[in-house]
Inverse folding.
């Protein structure tokens, strides 16, 4: 959610603090990953009550949208790229050239043999998955003191992935060549070179988007079972099984989080208010090709609007 008028941002923030103070069932999170303020409510009626307070008590126009989905980006094949950063603007300039090979990471994978690996560093990522950073430089083409700068540039791009700006994960980076300048090479130049070379290699490595999949358990009156199952399948859910107990049936499914927005309202409509459900995170899985195409298009359009 955000203020319809950016000039009202402070007023909306103050109103939210008031509401959360007086209504302990509301939760508020400023999500760094999703780049949104997330307001947690008890359901559609609760949300409508919050909207009423903004419009009638605080006299503020606020836009409520569905929370963004915490997608992940990864690669599915190896690719190489290089980038030379060169900038001259009087006095000392900036120069750094980086060549890298990137590979998809998985547990127990063998090391690549195309380039000799002199040093390996593994970094578990805060958002899940891993980055493996291999120094394959032979002959001093890049001084060891610039390797941390290259790594920093790569991490910056992994925090805002090349496809949709989502976190990237499960990648092996091999730095195998480059060039320095005796005067103009510095950490900034190599950070930029590393970040850009990584972006270019990523785009050539058959990149894919992963989405969060949740375990969903839906308990409904048995006579509503068919309609609820059809609705779940329409949400790209896979029904894994069902348990019957008396007049109720519990459907167990795996469903993409992206398809479960406002499911509470849909379930209530299908079961005349008698259905309940729970959700818990299961795993990240590759999105279907048509979904990835739609996500890439939406991201490009949003980026164009911001320019």
């Amino acid at each position: 959610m955000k203020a319809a008028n950016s000039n009202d941002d402070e007023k909306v923030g103050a109103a939210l603090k008031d509401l959360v103070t007086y209504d302990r069932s509301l939760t508020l999170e400023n999500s760094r990953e999703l780049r949104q303020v997330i307001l947690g409510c008890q359901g559609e009626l609760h949300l409508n009550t919050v909207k009423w307070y903004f419009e009638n008590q605080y006299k503020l126009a606020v836009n409520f949208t569905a929370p963004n989905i915490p997608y992940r980006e990864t690669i599915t094949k190896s690719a190489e790229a290089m980038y030379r950063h060169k900038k001259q603007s009087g006095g000392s300039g900036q120069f750094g050239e980086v060549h890298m090979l990137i590979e998809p990471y998985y547990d127990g994978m063998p090391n690549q043999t195309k380039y000799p690996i002199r040093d390996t560093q593994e970094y578990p990522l805060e958002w899940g998955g891993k980055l493996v950073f291999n120094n394959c430089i032979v002959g001093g083409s890049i001084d060891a003191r610039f390797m941390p700068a290259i790594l920093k540039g790569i991490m910056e791009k992994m925090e805002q992935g090349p496809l949709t700006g989502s976190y990237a994960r499960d990648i092996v980076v091999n730095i195998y060549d480059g060039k320095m300048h005796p005067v103009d090479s510095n950490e900034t130049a190599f950070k930029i070179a590393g970040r850009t070379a990584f972006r270019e290699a990523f785009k050539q490595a058959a990149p894919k988007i992963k989405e969060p999949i949740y375990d969903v358990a839906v308990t409904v009156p048995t006579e509503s079972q068919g309609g609820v199952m059809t609705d779940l399948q329409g949400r790209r859910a896979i029904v894994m099984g069902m348990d019957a107990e008396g007049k109720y049936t519990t459907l167990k499914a795996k469903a993409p989080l992206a398809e479960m927005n406002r499911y509470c309202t849909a379930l209530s409509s299908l079961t005349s208010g008698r259905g309940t459900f729970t959700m818990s995170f299961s795993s990240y899985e590759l999105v279907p090709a048509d979904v990835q195409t739609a996500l890439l298009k939406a991201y490009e359009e949003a980026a164009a609007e911001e320019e």
In short: The helical segments are 9-22, 44-57, 147-159, 187-204, 225-234, 263-271, 289-306.
